[in-house]
Amino acid sequence: MEAVTDETAPHGAEPVDGTDAAGTDQADVGLTDAGLPDAGRAPTRLCIASRTVRPVEELLRFVVAPDGTVVPDIHARLPGRGAWVTARHAVLADALKRKAFSRAFKGKGRTEPGLSDMVGQLLEKDALASLALAKKAGQVVTGNAKVIEALQSGKVAVLMHASEAAPDGAGKLDALARRIGEAAGREIARIDSLPGEQLDLALGRANVVHAALLAHPTSAGFLARMKRLEGWRAD
Fold this sequence. Notes:
InterPro entries: Ribosomal_eL30-like_sf, YlxR, YlxR-like_sf, YlxR_dom. By secondary structure, the chain is α+β, with helices and mostly antiparallel strands. The protein has seven helices and nine strands. Helix 3 packs antiparallel against helix 7.
């Protein structure tokens, strides 16, 4: 018996069974959305693996490409019906194991062995592109001295270290960020999962070890994408 669609299920991450409020069997209701989310809403969708309803920002959308393969739609912009999976590597693996896409797309979607790798690569590319956008907007400073100056100004929203940064140097900046954040009654986000080589490419300069992103919509966008990437990698 299939779960109800994300369009008819209640809000919140609650398990969904196969009946409606009147006890009517919902086996004939599909597992896909009817297209792209409505503008101006904060919709929820059904994860086809866990059968729970979650906010779309916690999920990844998948569609069937013209060649019949299931592909990720990380920006949720591609046309057609979409199936949603919680944005965790392990949950996608479970969806593939359960052949959940075949059920959701009524046998029309074909999954390829490299789907999980493709998702990880796209999420990483998206995060790095958003970092480059923040740099273009003038919201990123690099170098130990400039990062300290930015922290002391109270304008930093995100403190970032290359994954190979020396613990001593990163620790001193982290301690300063904590003191400044506590004094201001807010938390300065910390990211240390990107290697220096990727930071160099995204920021267009060599040997980036420490960086700070100032409070700005582009910085918030980068942070949201990094949280999604790190959540994906956590499993």
